Amino acid sequence: LAYELRDRVAIVRLRTIPEPGTWFQELDVILDDDGAWCLLVDATAVTELHGAWDDQAIGTALEWRKPSVLAFAGDRDHRFDAFHDGFDITVASPQAKLNGLDAVSWRQAGKIFALAEDPFTEALRLATVVASRAPHATQLAKEAIWRGMEMPLQQALRFETDLTLLLQTTKDRAEGVAAFIEKRQPNFTGS
Q1: Is 115:107 a contact under the CB 8 Å cutoff?
Q2: Euclidean distance between the first and final Cα of the chain, in Å?
Q3: Contact 120, 57 (CB under 8 A)
Q4: Helix crossing, 171-181 with 135-148: angle to 10°?
Q5: Model's pTM, two decimal places?
Q6: Fewest CB atoms within 10 A around its CB: which of 15, 68, 129, 136?
Q7: pLDDT tens-digit profile, the chain (191 residues)
Q8: Among positive and negative, which fits the CA dihedral 108, 113, 118, 119?
């Protein structure tokens, strides 16, 4: 799986959506790249979808350690809907259709984060913002959201607090505090 690394964003451009098993094996290489703090999948040129993207595949995708952003356009069927559900942030063109419904309806339902005439450019902007943050913090924030959704409120709040305490021990947390006090941009290292 070819990818480009730009500002700590690993960009994968797809023409076809692969089988879930193949996708996850190849994606592990990208997610293990120390320079990649966020994944951006450009699916604006996708013409085919292969494999059974189902709830199990979505669950596996949501457990990716690093935040993920998807950009898509065009008319997509119900199989793409399952693939799209595996991403943290989705950007679509306003003219896009997903499972027979227009992107505006999906946006109102909360299944699409943003609409943009150029979904790739907006997705890259969002991914770059995410990748500019401390990677441990974004990964644990992602975990708090996805795991917390399945928990009762009090348990989810406790889980979030526990993750926050873990972050207190990182060098990036100290760098973030120092940068704030010194009124400068932080230089996160992922440690």
Answers
A1: yes
A2: 27
A3: no
A4: 110
A5: 0.86
A6: 15
A7: 788 999 999 999 988 888 887 787 778 777 777 688 899 999 998 877 776 777 777 777 777 778 999 998 877 766 677 777 788 899 999 988 887 788 888 889 888 899 999 999 999 999 999 999 988 888 888 888 888 888 999 999 999 999 889 888 899 888 889 989 999 999 888 88
A8: negative
Q: Report the Cα 65 to chain-centroid distance in Å.
A: 10
d(CA 29, CA 135): 17
- As given in the structure block, the two tokens for residue 102 are 């227009």
Residue 132 tokens read as 């500019």
Amino acid at 155: Q
Taken in order 89, 94, 97, 100, is the CA torsion positive or negative? Answer: positive
